[in-house]
Amino acid sequence: MTATDPALTALAQGWCALSLLHGRIEAHIERALQAKHDLSVREYSLLDVLSRQHEGEGGHLQMKQVADAVVLSQSATTRLVTRLEDRGLLERYLCPTDRRGIYTNVTEAGLRLLDEARPTNDAALREALDEAARNPELAPLVRVVESLNVPA
Predict the structure, then answer these.
(1) 44-96 pLDDT per residue, tens
(2) Is 47:114 a contact under the CB 8 Å cutoff?
(3) Per-residue three-class SS string for 19-60
């Protein structure tokens, strides 16, 4: 295969379309969350991921798992946790069975903000997908996203 191979060109165009769709959706949601809740998409995602933790075996996520879930490096995730902790939306505490482990939980204030922001996030996502569906290059990708049934 060469750089001008039609298969590679089509693959690159597909990747560009996917990247464009992601960027448009993220930017639309970001604007809505910032305007109504003073939250970034990453902050919302982190609160959402951490709100799904539970007590018991495997209930709390390690920082690497959290970083993977919000698609950030561990250091960026730690900085994000610190910012949200400073705002009173998260709290950290030592693992009761392993004093080396640190857990991060969403506070009551964080849960309230997440509950308030969830409809904004969902509406902005729907709006962004509807807008993208009107673009012939993005419409097939929108249909794929809409057909996915992936557990959170």
Answers:
(1) 999 999 998 877 666 778 888 888 989 999 899 999 999 999 999 999 888 77
(2) yes
(3) HHHHHHHHHHHHHHHHHHHCCCHHHHHHHHHHHCCCCCCCCC
* pTM across the whole model: 0.86
Q: Name the β-bridge partners of 94.
A: 102
| Distance in angstroms (rounded) separating the CA atoms of residues 129 and 142 | 6
Q: For residue 140, give both structure tokens.
A: 């097939």
**Amino acid at position 58, single letter:** G
d(CA 5, CA 74): 38
CB 103 within 8 A of CB 60: yes
3-class state of residue 152 by DSSP? coil
